[in-house]
Amino acid sequence: MEGFVPLPYCLFICKTLTSLHLDMLCILKLPTTICFSSLKILKIQSVTFSNEYLTRKLFSGLPVLEELELRNCSWGNLMFMSISAPKLHSLCIFENWTADKYYGSPSDFCQVMIGGDCLKEFYYNGCLIGEYCLYESFSMEEAEVVTICEDVCEQLALRMLNLLIASKNYYVAEFGFSSISKKVLTHAEGHLSQMPMFKNLMNLIIVEMCVDFPVLVKILQNFPCLQTLNFSGGLCWALPELDNDDWTLDIVPPCFLSHLKLIKVPNYGDYEVELFAVKFLLKNAVVLEELIITVEDYYVGNLEKEVKIYKALLELPRGSPNCKIILE
Hints:
Blueprint: E1 4-6, E2 19-29, E3 41-49, H1 52-60, E4 67-71, E5 80-84, E6 90-94, E7 111-115, E8 121-126, E9 131-135, E10 142-147, H2 154-166, E11 172-176, H3 180-187, E12 203-206, E13 210-212, H4 213-220, E14 228-231, E15 236-238, H5 254-258, E16 262-268, H6 272-284, E17 290-295, H7 303-314, E18 324-327
Parallel strand pairs: 1-2, 2-3, 3-4, 4-6, 5-7, 6-8, 7-9, 8-10, 10-11, 11-12, 12-14, 13-15, 14-16, 16-17, 17-18
Helix pairs in contact: 2-3
Domain FBD: 254-328
InterPro entries: FBD, FBL13/AtMIF1-like, LRR_dom_sf, LRR_FXL15/At3g58940/PEG3-like
Protein name: FBD domain-containing protein
């Protein structure tokens, strides 16, 4: 479907409806009266919102909503929007990676305020087509922010920083980093002082395979109580002076010295850059208790290769005398 699509009026005042999934490539035309008194799950896909007042009314008229998912939707010409439901505990936003080519320039993007005392999970995956601001989400326990933008300007960099700043109260957070992160920090360099300490964050998952190492170190400076570091995409670091065995950091992240107990590295391929990265982690994480490494599928069942990898890992110096290296 394309163009303006009005849905049946009775749908928006149904008192028994508990779950609604709208998947329509269209401009959604909303009625003036909206009352989903029993709706607990709302999923909207491929829709373009057109009326700011009615759209805001939609997202504020959900008294018992628990789960909200917006997938590849466009805010159209809307400049400001708020999403606030008193019972909302899970919010997922997926934006099309190429949507900026269709939905206008960064100056046209919508600012979306997200609030809710019960919000526990926030997931975002996209190119920051809108500026998303979290507030009054003091119950937040888990957040995942994955973003890769081809063209990074200061405005987009600040949007990413705003999401990081808003996540300071989270106990578990998952962020996607890539080589583009260096550009993000470069464009937002004058604003990094706004980034708070993530004193509650204990588990960090790096979902991107190729991580710019200096960027990662800068980020980790703000996670003083981090206990678990999971490189879920594997290790493929952009490391300076790879041939320099004595390469060190000017400032080691505080968590390496006091709290970091577990590091997970899946998809380990025994490449030189990976071994260098593991060597650095083992040397500087002085309270580390476990380093769990999972070999990539290619080596599974190759006992000779696995033994060779394990021996090479055991020969690496460790800053923590109690650290166990586990190969899976």
